[in-house]
Amino acid sequence: MQKNPMTVEGEAALRAELDRLKKQDRPVVIQAIAEAREHGDLKENAEYHAAREQQGFIEGRIQDIEGKLSTAQVIDISAMPQGDRVIFGSKVTILNVETDEQVTYRIVGDDEANVKEGKISYQSPIARGLISKEVGDVVVVKTPGGDVEFEIDDVVYTV
Predict the structure, then answer these.
(1) b/e map of 19-29 (b: 16 or more CB within 10 Å)?
(2) 85 and 66, same structural domain?
(3) pLDDT digit string (tens) for 61-94?
(4) pTM above 0.70?
């Protein structure tokens, strides 16, 4: 079985979503279905069909999260000694050699990735190019627009 790497924060977020789905969203939908059933004919009852659709979505998401958590390999980067090597969970500041544009990314699991928050998947082309490199290294990342050179300016192992 393939492990699904994620940070401590990513696991906590999934567990919180699972808890909300089970304890809040699911009971609300069950109640909505019960109320819609009381209205009689279910074939033409839009509230009933909408509630059933929502229930299907919630149950699917619960199964999805439980599956991800069952294969999760939680990596606590804060427990590791500080270093200069880019690893899963680290924050890395890179400099585009051509444009001098500096950007900081945190390398996280697939479910946590959000470019707007500066979090990229460990499977992304940039992350794959950076992992195992050290501060001062120059890496070439293949992008849709062509190869881009980045210099690693800083690596931090804290959240």
Answers:
(1) eebeeebbeeb
(2) no
(3) 999 999 999 999 999 988 888 888 999 999 999 9
(4) yes
